Known about the structure:
- By secondary structure, this protein is mainly alpha-helical.
- It contains seven helices and two strands; from the N terminus they run H-H-H-H-E-E-H-H-H.
- It has two domains: 2-52, no CATH class; 78-140, no CATH class.
- The radius of gyration is 20 Å and the shape is elongated.
Amino acid sequence: MWDKIQQLRELIKPLNTFKRRKCWRCGKDLNIYDFLSDNVEYSAKRILGLWQSSMLEFHCCECFKFLKGGELQLIERILNTRKCTYCNEDIDLYSYSKLNNYLKIYELKDIWLNRKSEVFCNSICRKKYYRDLGQSSIRLK
């Protein structure tokens, strides 16, 4: 991540017209480095290209969470709860989303709606599941 920040800084330096951004919904000032950290899968050059584009508008984190809430409601209508793969406790979509807040909405939807995907109610169950899975594979050898 640090390398991408450095690359982005170097790309911004020679620009005469670096674009200042505000949230499209609420008007809050936005920071390109926050944008980079939320989109780490893109190169620094791609991030700058998106940022400078006159065709795109961006949301602050709070407004984006509001949008994500609407998307979660659509997913919830299809499947509201799942069972933890390890302990079999019920998990609601919002708890799972909060626990896995790094997931993009399309990733969350793909995992949640695929009943073969492993879902866990917390990080302890996830760790125990993979620990037990690792121990069982050792016994098979």
